[in-house]
Specification:
L-fuculose-1-phosphate Aldolase, eight-stranded mixed sheet, disordered C terminus, alpha+beta, 27% helix, 8 strands
C-alpha cells in the first residue's frame, strides 16, 4: 500500500513546496512568479520573497505581507506583485492558495488571443467555459488597485490569463493547486497546432 503524503500545515512550508513543484514543472522565469497562501490569523498573504527563482525557495525565504505591502514577518524583500495575492485572497472567501507564473508557453499563448482548448485531462479543469482574461495591462501588477482589477476579472474562476504576462490560478486549498501547470502545458501546443490550420478532437462537449 503506498505511503500517505501529508500536506504541510505551516504556510511557509506550503509556499516553499509549491515553488519547488512549479520549478520542477518548468514554470521558472528567472526570479518572477510566486505562490501565496492566506495567513491563518487573517493578516495578509504568505508569499516567496523577491529575488529568488522557484527552485531556490525554502521556508526561510517566505514572508508575510499585508494589503498595503508591509512585511509583517520574515526577513526577505517583498515581491512587487504581492497585490495579486493579497487582493484575490481578500476578495474570494475560502480561497486557500494563489499561484502566479510567467510560464513561457502561457505568455506566448495568451498573446495570440486564441481560446484555450483542453488537449489533456488537466485542461478540462480550466475550460470550458473560456478561461478568464485580464486585458487592461500586460505589465507587472504593482499596485493594490491593479490587484483589485485582476481579482475582479478573475471572479470565481480558477484561472486567469494575463496576455503577454502569464497566468494566475486560485483554489480552495493548497492541495487543489497541484494542477497549476495545466494552463502552461495546454497553451503552446494548442496555439502551434491551430497555427497550421488544423483543429483538435474535443475531450469535452462544446
Amino acid at each position: 500500500m503506498p505511503a500517505e503524503t501529508s500536506v504541510p500545515t505551516d504556510p511557509r512550508e506550503q509556499v516553499a513546496l509549491g515553488c519547488r513543484v512549479l520549478a520542477a514543472s518548468g514554470q521558472t522565469d528567472l526570479i518572477w512568479g510566486h505562490v501565496g497562501v492566506p495567513d491563518p490569523a487573517g493578516r495578509g498573504a504568505w508569499i516567496k520573497a523577491r529575488g529568488l527563482g522557484f527552485g531556490e525557495v525554502t521556508p526561510d525565504d517566505v514572508v508575510l505581507v499585508d494589503r498595503g505591502g508591509e512585511r509583517l514577518a520574515g526577513t526577505g524583500g517583498v515581491h512587487v506583485e504581492y497585490p495579486i495575492h493579497t487582493e484575490i485572497l481578500a476578495s474570494r472567501e475560502g480561497t486557500g492558495c494563489v499561484v502566479h507564473s510567467h510560464a513561457e508557453s502561457v505568455v506566448a499563448f495568451s498573446a495570440t488571443g486564441m481560446s484555450l482548448r483542453a488537449i489533456g485531462h488537466e485542461g478540462t479543469l480550466f475550460t470550458p467555459p473560456e478561461v478568464a482574461r485580464y486585458t487592461d495591462t500586460g505589465d507587472l501588477i504593482r499596485t493594490p488597485e491593479l490587484g483589485v482589477d485582476v481579482a475582479r476579472a478573475m471572479g470565481d474562476r480558477n484561472a486567469l490569463l494575463i496576455p503577454h504576462h502569464g497566468f494566475v490560478s486560485a483554489g480552495p486549498d493548497y492541495a487543489h493547486r497541484g494542477h497549476d501547470g495545466g494552463p502552461a502545458r495546454q497553451g503552446l501546443p494548442d496555439a502551434a497546432h491551430r497555427g497550421r490550420g488544423r483543429d483538435w478532437l474535443h475531450l469535452v462537449p462544446r
